[in-house]
Each structure stands twice: as C-alpha cells, then as structure tokens.
Design a protein that fits this description.
This protein has 12 helices and 15 strands. It has 378 residues and is of the alpha/beta class. The chain folds into 2 domains: 10-277, Carbamate kinase (3-Layer(aba) Sandwich), CATH 3.40.1160.10; 285-377, Archaeosine Trna-guanine Transglycosylase, Chain: A, domain 4 (Roll). The strands form 3 sheets. The chain has an 8-stranded mixed sheet with strand order 3-4-2-1-5-9-10-8, sandwiched between helices. A 5-stranded mixed sheet has the order 12-11-13-14-15. Strand 1, helix 1 (37-52) and strand 2 (56-61) form a beta-alpha-beta unit. Helix 1 (37-52) crosses helix 3 (81-104) and helix 6 packs antiparallel against helix 9 (274-281). One of its GO terms (molecular function) is RNA binding. Keywords: Amino-acid biosynthesis, ATP-binding, Cytoplasm, Kinase, Nucleotide-binding, Proline biosynthesis, Transferase.
Length: 378
C-alpha cells in the first residue's frame, strides 16, 4: 500500500510509491469534441515513465461522453441524461481502446474500472472496488477509472471525476493526487486577466478564504469547474494525500515535484478512517433525522451516539442501514450516519429514553438511532 503521505513539500512527490492522476475531458479532446490522440499519447508516455521508475499509477479519466459526441454527430455536450448515457456508452469503448493502444507501446496493460456513486455508497461494493484496484496494481496493470455514465443517474452520481479521483486516492492510500485541467494552476482571480496571480501553495482551506474560484472550463465538454477541484483537493489532503492542480501539459513536471501548478499540502493529523471519509464524501443522505439542541451538542461536541430521546422529526423515506443526514432544527446538516431503523419506525421512538423503549417495546428497541462508530460530523 502507499505510504502515509509525501509531507509538506513538493520534493518528495517524485519518490511517491503510488499516485492517482485525474484528467478532464477538455484536456483530452479536440475543439470539435472528438478524442485528441496526441494528447492521450503524451499522457500515456508520462505515466508509463513513472511506472517504469517504480511508481504505481492509477488514471482517473473523463472523456467518454466527449468521445461519443462525434460518432453521434453532436457538436455540443448533450444536456439530457439519456443522450449523455448513449454518448458515454459509445465513447467509453473508443477512449479505452486508445489508452490500451498507447500503454501497450510501453508494454503496459490498461484495465477499465467503471464506478457509480452508488458503488462507493455501499460498503461491500466500496471494499470490492478497493480489492480489485489493489490487485490490478500488484500485477502491474494501469487501472483506468471513470464514472459509469451509462448507468449513473442525476440523483446519484459524482457529477465530476475530480471528487471520484479524490475518493480513489483515499481508497488506495495513494501518496499523491494530480488533478489535470485546462489551466495551469489555481489563481486568485480570472486566469485570463493580467492582474490575477498564481496560487502556488495552499496549506489549509483558510488560505483560499475570499478567493473567487469561478469556472475554468470554456469549451463545453466537461462538467466541472475550479470549485469541484478545490473541494476534491480538500478531500484528498484531509486523507493525507498531497495534491497538485495543474494543466495536462505540466503532467510530467508535476509528477517530478517541480514548481508548477498549485500544491495542496496534506494534513499532518491522523488520517480519517475509511469509514469516516466514506460517510462524509462517498454517501448521500437518503433522508434526514432532525435533532434537538442537546442532541446536536452530544453528537458534534461529545462525539456521542444519536439516541431516540434527541430526535424531533424524520424526513424522507429510508431503511435501516441507509446513510441519513442529521440536521439541527434550523436545517443545518451537522453529521451523517448509518441509521439503525426504518424511517417509519422512528416517530414512535422520538423523545423516549432507550430504557423506556426497552421496557415498553422490547430489548431490540434499546439501540441507538445512529451509533457513534457509524457517524461522521460534517
């Protein structure tokens, strides 16, 4: 497995044992929307060189929908889900075929991994994805990961591969995450304006207070802007993964630890457990449980379990074992956890002590609404 992060400077990036590289649609396609074979070849050359140097490499690649646009005669990214799925189903095969050919030039085997958000929301599937990718790295393959746009829905999807890449970096205990986009770094203003300056280093989220992140994509083939990239960097650094944000043209320099792009320093504190990061970033609440002020304090300050006595309202339709949002009475989401009851069961339990519930309804009702081991404060 990867080591525990590469530290506070870029210099150790070149020695990283395991890296995740994410490339966006706009970095892989022509202005007309088709696959740019030269760009894919250049990227494969860079990653193959790192693989030859002994670094395990995982590529998270967008571009399936963009690659499928030209065969469908589309000049703009489709807005409706069905056409996006059709384009993805055509484009994913074209994209992987090109990667397979380019990595084969270096005697490397490309392996396709298609994930949906639901795959990382369900713990058994999360673990299965982790095992599969780890085994691919062990046998020397290059896993190529993408969101499974053909079956993803608007309601449950990553929406952009930046967040997927950050979660994969955590999943695999990577040392470094490199986010490749169509601008060379994060700027303190519009990158096209001469008054804007490159932000070369971010030590904590507070460093970006007041920075207008805006949007970086001008070509209409991707889905993400700088906001999602910064959020993904936060997820990764929170998990101890050093992160570099730069352009695809700077990929080699970034992996060599040179002063390109923006370097996000990994947190020095203990990495959150897989369960905590999974709950915080790979799940979506299937409903909400509203807490009284005392329960909010118990959950957020004392890190206690949520008991029936502190619940004042239930929203949505969920089943035992589902992730749910824990909200304060003003609507603020304060935590997320795996609930122990169906939504229909909780109203009868609200405001009651576990002792009363056990006496009146039976011992099976003495359990918590959400146990503290299945809960993360947001």
């Amino acid at each position: 497995m990867g080591s525990q992060g590469v530290g506070q400077t870029r210099s150790a990036i070149s020695q990283a044992r395991r890296v995740v590289v994410k490339v966006g649609s706009s970095s892989l396609t022509t202005p007309e929307g088709g696959i740019d074979h030269d760009r894919i070849r250049d990227l494969a050359d860079v990653l193959a060189a790192r693989r030859a140097a002994g670094t395990e490499v995982v590529l998270v690649s967008s571009g399936a929908v963009a690659a499928g646009m030209a065969p469908l005669g589309l000049t703009r990214r489709p807005r409706d889900l069905a056409t996006q799925q059709a384009a993805a189903s055509i484009g994913q095969g074209l994209l992987l075929a090109r990667y397979t050919a380019e990595f084969a030039r270096h005697s490397l085997t490309a392996a396709q991994i298609l994930l949906t958000a639901d795959d990382l929301m369900r713990r058994a599937q999360y673990r299965n994805a982790q095992r599969a990718m780890s085994r691919l790295l062990e046998i020397g393959a290059v896993p190529i990961v993408n969101e499974n746009d053909t079956v993803a829905t608007h309601e449950i999807r990553f929406g952009d591969n930046d967040r997927l890449a950050a979660l994969v970096a955590h999943l695999l205990r990577a040392d470094v995450l490199v986010l490749l986009t169509d601008v060379d770094a994060l700027y303190d203003g519009d990158p096209s304006l001469p008054t804007s300056s490159r932000i070369s280093r971010v030590d904590s989220p507070e460093d970006l207070a007041g920075v207008d992140l805006g949007s970086t994509n001008r070509r209409g083939v991707g889905t993400g802007g700088m906001v999602t990239k910064v959020e993904s960097a936060r997820i990764a650094t929170e998990a101890g993964v050093a992160t570099v944000l730069t352009s695809a043209a700077n990929a080699r320099a970034a992996l060599d630890g040179e002063e390109v792009g923006t370097f996000f320093v990994p947190a020095e504190r203990r990495r959150p457990s897989s369960r905590q990061l999974w709950l915080a970033h790979a799940t979506a609440g299937r409903g909400s449980v509203v807490l009284d002020p005392g329960a909010v304090r118990a959950v957020t300050v004392r890190k206690a379990s949520l008991l029936p006595a502190g619940v004042v309202k239930v929203e949505g339709d969920f089943s035992a074992g589902d992730p749910v949002d824990l909200r304060a009475e003003d609507g603020t989401i304060v935590a997320r956890g795996l609930v122990n009851y169906d939504a229909s069961e909780i109203p009868e339990l609200m405001g009651r002590s576990t002792r009363w519930l056990a006496r009146e309804l039976g011992s099976e009702y003495s359990r918590e609404i959400v146990h503290r081991d299945d809960l993360v404060v947001l």
